[in-house]
Amino acid sequence: MDLKNTTHKTIIGAAQNMHQIDSNSIDLVVTSPPYPMIEMWDDIMALQNPKIATALTNNEPHLAFELMHLELDKIWKEVARVLKDGGFACINIGDATRTINSNFALYPNHARIISAFQELDIPNLPNIIWRKQTNAPNKFMGSGMLPAGAYVTLEHEWVLIFRKGGKREFKKPEDKLRRQESSFFWEERNIWFSDLWDLKGTKQKIDNSKSRKRSAAYPFELPYRLINMYSLQNDVVLDPFLGTGTTALAAMTAQRNSIGYEIDPKFLEVINENIQTTSLADLNSNIDNRINSHREFIINRQKDPKKKDIKHFNAHLNLPVVTSQEKNIRLHYLNEIINEDDQFRATYVEYSPSEDGLPHVLKKSINQAALSKL
Known about the structure:
The chain is an alpha/beta fold and 374 residues long. It folds into two domains: 5-278, Vaccinia Virus protein VP39 (Rossmann fold); 286-371, no CATH class. The chain has twelve helices and 14 strands. The chain has helices at 42-48, 51-57, 61-82, 109-119, 173-181, 186-192, 221-230, 246-253, 268-277, 280-303, 353-356, 368-371; strands at 5-12, 26-31, 83-93, 96-100, 103-107, 124-132, 156-163, 196-199, 236-239, 257-262, 312-314, 319-321, 332-340, 343-350. The chain has a ten-stranded mixed sheet with strand order 8-6-7-3-2-9-10-1-14-13. The longest helix has 24 residues, at 280-303. It starts with a strand and ends with a helix. The model is unreliable at 355-374 (pLDDT under 50).
């Protein structure tokens, strides 16, 4: 197993049939499908089933909603097939609000997807509410300050978490070590595994697309967190709705392999350009941010007299850590992203405190004096 290289493949085609992927071969799915009943996705949905367009034309929104989800159900069935036992599926989805035939209503996409996975005998685990930051001055819908006419503002989306089968097992010594090396920091755990995320959205306009002009992409931080939370280095991450390639970039940065499906062939150029023009420095800054945030956390923790002394040390990062489970964390910088015909290959170099110019902390001196020099 080569931990210094990962591969990233884009497949153009509908994810309703992912015949290129073997059953029980994917470690993690991270994706965001088209949101049923959001108008920008009507045409793409109708291409899958013309009855969707007919239902909308005939002012039958609940029929259109169900027909759209029946198309997504085909993809969730494929997700269930390709996932390994113990593998996770993380699905970012927003509910939709829409006025049809003068009737305003909410269409609960998240609930319908949960039902679909339950039918596949894949249980839903506790989910994440993504509260999207907005600067809109007039957020409320309806009649302003007058009662019995306004609607609650819809400012959140969902990250639904599913796991196929029971807990993933790590029986081989090399898998146990890889799990330890893929660990996250104690303070990251406390933030990432909260059920409420407050992340800014990302730019939606696509300047170089020959197809749609808005991407509906999620911010890089969202798949990057999920990939670190639910997979190991060198695992395979699947995105059945690749879009502009954000999941692939996050997988590269987290040192995972990736496969993405995109139904629109005109989007291949967008995906490839996005991967090729995103600078290594920008991607590697995510590693720097994790390390710098941890160093700052350690310093602040040691300043608090109410906190216990830190007794553990990670020699790879040359930093104190809160728990023994963090002692073997290894982080790698992207070294190169190479376009090899029908896929990209990423190479890595291990993070080194001396190469980065960060001061060393002596392993035998994990105390306030040493930490003050960090």
